[in-house]
Amino acid sequence: MNKPDVVVIGGGVIGCAIAYYLTKRGARVTVLERDRIGDHASSAAAGMLGAQVETSFPGPMVDLCLASRRMFPDLQQELLQLTGLDIEWNSAGMLRLAMDERESGELQQRGEWQREIGEKAEWWSQEQLIQSEPALSSEVKGALHLPGDTQVSAPRLTRAFARGLHILGGKGVEGAFVTGLRVERGRVKEVETSAGSYRPEQVVLAAGVWTRSVARMAGVSLPVFPVKGESLSVQVSEPLFRKTLFGPGAYLVPKPDGQVIVGATERENDTSPGVTLEGLHRLSREALRMVPELSGGNWERSWAGFRPGSPDGLPYLGRVKELSNLYVASGHFRNGILLSPVTGRGMADLLAGLEVPEFHPFSPERGERVTQSGWG
Amino acid sequence: MNKPDVVVIGGGVIGCAIAYYLTKRGARVTVLERDRIGDHASSAAAGMLGAQVETSFPGPMVDLCLASRRMFPDLQQELLQLTGLDIEWNSAGMLRLAMDERESGELQQRGEWQREIGEKAEWWSQEQLIQSEPALSSEVKGALHLPGDTQVSAPRLTRAFARGLHILGGKGVEGAFVTGLRVERGRVKEVETSAGSYRPEQVVLAAGVWTRSVARMAGVSLPVFPVKGESLSVQVSEPLFRKTLFGPGAYLVPKPDGQVIVGATERENDTSPGVTLEGLHRLSREALRMVPELSGGNWERSWAGFRPGSPDGLPYLGRVKELSNLYVASGHFRNGILLSPVTGRGMADLLAGLEVPEFHPFSPERGERVTQSGWG
Amino acid sequence: MNKPDVVVIGGGVIGCAIAYYLTKRGARVTVLERDRIGDHASSAAAGMLGAQVETSFPGPMVDLCLASRRMFPDLQQELLQLTGLDIEWNSAGMLRLAMDERESGELQQRGEWQREIGEKAEWWSQEQLIQSEPALSSEVKGALHLPGDTQVSAPRLTRAFARGLHILGGKGVEGAFVTGLRVERGRVKEVETSAGSYRPEQVVLAAGVWTRSVARMAGVSLPVFPVKGESLSVQVSEPLFRKTLFGPGAYLVPKPDGQVIVGATERENDTSPGVTLEGLHRLSREALRMVPELSGGNWERSWAGFRPGSPDGLPYLGRVKELSNLYVASGHFRNGILLSPVTGRGMADLLAGLEVPEFHPFSPERGERVTQSGWG
Amino acid sequence: MNKPDVVVIGGGVIGCAIAYYLTKRGARVTVLERDRIGDHASSAAAGMLGAQVETSFPGPMVDLCLASRRMFPDLQQELLQLTGLDIEWNSAGMLRLAMDERESGELQQRGEWQREIGEKAEWWSQEQLIQSEPALSSEVKGALHLPGDTQVSAPRLTRAFARGLHILGGKGVEGAFVTGLRVERGRVKEVETSAGSYRPEQVVLAAGVWTRSVARMAGVSLPVFPVKGESLSVQVSEPLFRKTLFGPGAYLVPKPDGQVIVGATERENDTSPGVTLEGLHRLSREALRMVPELSGGNWERSWAGFRPGSPDGLPYLGRVKELSNLYVASGHFRNGILLSPVTGRGMADLLAGLEVPEFHPFSPERGERVTQSGWG
């Protein structure tokens, strides 16, 4: 019988970040991963740190995202020192493109309140745009320039958290799917898996789209649902643009090795594996519409992932009310990469008994209360 | 709400075979597959139809295997006509190799009782062997020649069952993982999945190594456990041998396109993904020991799969005693490909209300009774 | 020094077919392949046997194609017997789709002369079409029904020729790129390769798009040029259509395992590796235009190949005039799979000293004579 | 007609490094690559910067290697600044393992002369070894500790050179294989390729194992020959060792993401594609012999590459005597990654008309002179 202090269920970027921060605090942590560490939504992500690009109004969700975004420059150094892995933090910023008048108007309004809360969000006319990114199509009418919304390599971030926790003495078990949660006297007594059983003091559920069915094994209801996303990548030999380009139909994220990630469709409650022909068609059409010169880019890979959605668009961060030692960190939807450091650090604080006020709006107890994320 | 007649949980070769035979009878069947049809153990198999090669003594298991083996020649024609897919049934037979005196003795005894029950099982001396398969190493001391133990393409067999059932009007849903089984009045009322809910008349559980945890959702205990197997394949340009070569440490299965499958390790209760370096080392060493000329063969692929084992080595075939409409067909261990036709046909009969006497020894109710498989 | 009777330079479908027929006649043949047997254009092909679908007027090219097409039913049996590999000949026929009035008119004319030369080529109205293939879009206005234009698995055909020649005693050497052709007294005396030198009696050049640069090593000029083609494939669970659908912008070739191949772009003199984003966009758009239900098909693979083109659109089949023992079989453009049996058999006859009248119009000596292929 | 200043034939690490340093100097450079940039030997390499580990005696080759090794720390910073790509320079050093008395003796002698020329090379007893790297097998009898022999990511280095040259305005053309070199009045007038023709002022031949056959097109003889190398990699979750372990039968190179590269076999004049079963067997056996705990490592990939060897073991660096504008940089055998910066910088100097004294011993004119590399 294995008796770590904490078992984290789920080896995606959220689970690994939590385990990493816990291990830094000295806890003996084991991460249980159904398949391979980082294989699912965390590797499917494009790595955008978009705290501003998708938010329609201010609120605690934006605050959380901004707080997490601010952690990346130091985190990059920390993980590089510890593991030798560079998470490829790219500070070139983002452009939220408008393809017509209506979008221009909406984005200019968005820029306004973002500047009011102290963030940079300047409106760029078509002329300014073309000067900065000459490969943009003349169909693009203008853009909100968001220099703070940067990006990293999502697979490298997950990998670096995982390597870091191993180097610091934590454990990760791959191929361990949970087959039962034994509850006794109001707490999870045992986590049963295909790779043996565990009796930790505390359990963190960070299983992405599988959160709901694992929670159910302990009699806990968490309405996390899957939102399938399809992406593809191309290789360009000459660098065509430097900033992340976020349009109404797709986004384009340039990577240092010449890769451009084109993402992403959204299909609610679709868990079918693989990329559809329609997804490919949509993504390729939208990419060419934004940057026509991508036509000669070399297709590299296509993939799908399943984002964990929640009814009100907010993540669940905190202890479940039914059980005294079961915590949840899930439902990050499209913001798992961005929110991983703040989630990891905060959950480590929570498990250590500290108060984490910034998590209050995201309590799993909030039930069906209609708080809205401001995302869209 | 979907209301097929039958839901089959599991889209491996067993689930697809059952659904195929049910569809042929006219039932409206839906197969629910967690990932992709045929992606797991069914594709990992080498496709041997070894009814004799691994059995140490006679009994109902051998009888079932022989019955299933006899179905293949007709099945090949039937599936080819219907789907256009050839399952590549290869009738060249098998050699059970002995590397020392002790093994020679054991195999000669095995040959004896097999001949007594009417099967071909001739002992071949080293001289006879070399004449038939000159690429065999001189380390091989003799072999039991089993012309009836033939082989097919495992991925093609699964695919052909799946295509067949689609052509006949059945359905397969990929990416559908079961999240709950709702039981009411002694029967499964609803199968809840990530891809919607189903209310079928009858449910068949054919989920391989995941059988245990799905059964548990309905309160049923089925002690199926995983036995991981690692394999690799090489391509040879010149055909080195024609028969399947089954040695004490590995087997070599030649395919018509020049592929030779080298299998397989056995690791009980290991669900870690991927192939270990030790597995690679063992398989390559044993392959070269049997056929030294394989040294120049081109490595092609390495993979692992998880065979569903059972405590007494026998599959579970039949209705579970706790619920009136839940059937199980699992625990086929290393014989899933071989047993798929007899399992599919028999289960279709059972669900139609017929008696299937040959399944009696494999009742899921047998509990911990120590019947032994005779395998080893 | 290796001294086979014949060296065939090029291990694609043409080279393997020639070597196969030569080996059947008893010649000692070695095929030299730069990479792996069948890795290039032969595996990239969709496998259509389109003798009628693309031809605009009658002539020797159509005759050659029809002659080759007629060889496939027997060839399938022959290769299956010998190798155990089924080339998956599918006799469901082809539909040449018209998307507007102009195309309808042209195709009806094409049907007329094809019927005059004795081939089946019936015009189907939209109503007839929908009855036969209900998944077709209502954008399709009609089609020429070509039941004789069937299809096979291109990779399996190449593989089967290669296995067949090995079984019959021929040799294939992979990774052997030609570094020089030593000419003495009007003949090729030695073929120098990265894998050793050869002094055969006769040399056949069947190197696809590399034909030109190999020929040049012997001082022979053959204006074969590359025409890049991009394709993709999707998997559909339910069979959506049975015939090959050939539209003005792409074609859809259904395979027995549920694969649908969508091909192909044409880029002259483009030898860049890989599939462009524009290619993906075009193919996905055209596929959805013909069969909207393909939208849910699962993308499987994308790939590119290089077809060997010639200035007049006709292949080169015969001896080169400059050297007494150098033969060429190249420039098959989009018809390599279709023409492989007639090319293989005819070249084997030629090398044996027989007359092959049907090859006269394709003599490599024809130079820049403007014979046209009638393809388009 | 394209008229760059310089055409570099070959897009491996050597060609890209040369083009990078030339572009930095302001030259207009085009790299012609037969397949994809960095696809061949450069990606197959393990990335060791072994200036000391394999040399048996001092000389100009060791000096060149040491000079190049010293360039890496600055180069890492330079490429990271310019491209955002980290080449993952790992300074943990190397251990040259001795498995018996004879090897211990030889390595201690090697350490002596290396210390005499000012390099660190300390002998470590078994006790010291186990303290530093406790995962080493007790079969290891001692080791030469070489803290200066570090390592990088070979694919990232090549990629970073390629990205760098693009960012600085250079060009790379993929899929461009050379079909002819037109020589006029003692110089290469035109480089003919499958992707068009070029008339540069200067031509650099850096085509690795294809150098010989391209040189021949210009009538130049360069006896570069292929030495095939097979490798594999495994993933380990816990870091087992930190230094590169170089044993008599294989080497183990640990990467920051948990990958361990196991290399490499040597097969002279073997250009067959792919990894043999024997290669797999050897590498897995030797790896387990050095670090038994690797047995549970997850096999990740196997691959082969072709190192460009030369008769005397030294690279060719300089102008060929026959032609006034043709330079060669090839024959780096196992030291292409290590020697890429010094080769790139030196060749850029040479083409600019400067003297490069350290290249004198490596002149392509040295012919069959028996200078020895000291490698072995």
Description:
The structure is a homotetramer of 376-residue chains. With 376 residues, chain A is α/β, with parallel strands linked by helices. Chain A folds into 3 domains: 6-54 and 155-223 and 311-362, FAD/NAD(P)-binding domain (3-Layer(bba) Sandwich), CATH 3.50.50; 94-147, no CATH class; 225-307, D-Amino Acid Oxidase, subunit A, domain 2 (D-Amino Acid Oxidase, Chain A, domain 2), CATH 3.30.9.10. Helices cover 30% and strands 25% of the residues of chain A. Chain A has 10 helices and 18 strands. Chain A has helices at 13-24, 41-44, 60-70, 72-83, 101-116, 126-132, 154-167, 211-217, 277-290, 336-351, and strands at residues 6-9, 29-33, 94-98, 122-125, 142-146, 171-174, 178-184, 187-193, 196-198, 202-205, 225-235, 244-246, 251-254, 259-263, 267-268, 298-309, 316-319, 326-330. In chain A, the strands form 3 sheets. In chain A, strands 3, 4, 5, 11, 12, 13, 14, 15 and 16 form a 9-stranded mixed beta sheet that branches. In chain A, strand 13 (251-254) and strand 14 (259-263) form a beta hairpin. In chain A, helix 1 (13-24) runs parallel beside helix 7 (154-167) and helix 3 crosses helix 10. Chain A is globular. The N and C termini of chain A lie far apart (46 Å). The mean pLDDT of chain A is 95. At the A-D interface, helix 7 of A face helix 7 of D. Chains A, B, C, D: Keywords: Oxidoreductase, Thiamine biosynthesis. Chains A, B, C, D: One of its GO terms (biological process) is thiamine biosynthetic process.
